[in-house]
Amino acid sequence: MTIQPIGNQVLVEIDPSSNVSQGGIVMIEDSLPVPRNATVIRVGTGRVTKKGINIPIEFKPGERVYLDIGHRVDVMEGDRKLCLIDAGHVMGIVTQTP
After folding, report:
1. What pTM did the predictor assign?
2. Is the dihedral of CA 40, 45, 89, 10 positive or negative?
3. Which residue has the higher pLDDT, 69 or 13?
4. How far is CA 8 from each of CA 20, 22, 69, 72, 83, rounded to the nearest angstrom?
């Protein structure tokens, strides 16, 4: 099964979080912080204004993004756990600094 987002939706794969804190304490799964970084897998066509103008999504597959994670739908695509999220809940693009 392949999921293609429509409209202003984005399909992302959330980065896994570590179960060891910075201080070396092993945490149970329920106490892990919710990861906010993700990799864009696929994007929809963008949103349409009231005047019918299509505004494309500003990022593309392969880019890493920072999410407002509270507004997502978890989906399975084969054995991969992915999330559908509205493009408006992507807070920024993550880049590596030299």
Report:
1. 0.78
2. negative
3. 13
4. 35, 36, 16, 13, 14
